[in-house]
Amino acid sequence: MLPAERDFYLTQSVHSDPGMAARLAELPTGPDELALLVRHLLIHREEAGRYGCALPDSRYRSEAETRYIDDILDIVVRLDGAPLTAPRRPLDRFAGTCRDFALLHCALLRHTGTPARIRCGYATYFAEGFHDDHWITEYAHPERGWVLSDPQMVPDTRIEQPYTLDFDPLDVPRDRFLVAGEGWRRCREGEADPKTFGVSVLGLMGGWMVRANVVRDLAALNRDEVLPWDAWGVGDGGKDGAEEPGEEELALLDEAARVTVAADFDEVRALYRDSPGLRVPATVTSYQSFEGECEVRLRGPRDSEG
C-alpha cells in the first residue's frame, strides 16, 4: 500500500470522526478486539428479540437515523456512563444497523492506527439463496492486504439466539460477502437474479437496490459513509426504484461497479472526483424507514470537494 492510500484510510471522515478523544482512552488496538468492543456497544435494531428483550418504539424508530460516530457515542454514553470498554446490557447499547457496526469499527481502527474503510454489499449468510443488503468493515492487514470483518456477527455471550456461521466473522470470505459492484456485474451479465438481492426480512428486492448500493459503496471507498437509505445522482431510482437508468447512467454504473470491485485507490478517487452523478452532494434524499422521504443536508466540509 502506497503512503497516499494508507494516509487516506487512516484519516477520519466527517462521518467516522469519534470526537472527544478522552473517552477513547485505553482502547485495544487489534482489529478483532475492536470488533468485539463494537459488538458490546451496539445492537442491531432488528435483533433485540435475539437477546430476549424489546426496544422502546421511539428508539427503534429513531436511533438508526444517527449519521455520525460522535453522535452515536454520545448516545452510548448517555445510555450508560461507564467507559466504552465496560460491558453493557443489550438495551444500554446504541440501536442501529449493520452500517453503524461497520462505521464504528472503522472509526476505532483509524483511531488506533489501522487503515480501514467500510464496504456496502450483500451477505449470503442471513437467508439461504438470498443476497442480503449488508455493510461490513475492510481493514489493511500488514501481511494479507485488505481483510473483511463483520463486527455485527461477532459471538456475544448475552445473545439468546446466536447466529450460525460456517466461517470466522472476523475474516469474512469474499464469496460470502459480495461488494455491491460484484452483485451489479452478476445481475447485468445474467449470472444472478436481481430478485435475490435486497432485504429479505422486509421483502424488498430488485436491481434498483443493487444500483443504489454500487453508488454507496463507491462513496464509502471515498470516505463518504452515508446511511443505507440515502440516495443521489445515478443511484437514486426513487423509493421503489421506478425510475429506470438511461444508457449513459448504466454505463456510469458499470464503470463504478468495475472500479469498486477492483478497488484500485487511484481509480476509486479519480472516478469519484470526476463524476458528479456518483459523488455525494451536500444534500441527499433520505428514504427513511418511518418518517418517509426527506432532503438532508450533510455536515461539511465535504471530502468529495477536496
TrEMBL record:
Pfam families: Transglut_core (PF01841)
Chain ranges of the Transglutaminase-like domain: 95-151
Gene3D superfamilies: 3.10.620.30
InterPro entries named among the record's database cross-references: Papain-like_cys_pep_sf (IPR038765), Transglutaminase-like (IPR002931)
Family matches, as SUPFAM superfamilies: Cysteine proteinases
Name of the protein in its database record: Transglutaminase-like domain-containing protein
Organism of provenance: Streptomyces nanshensis
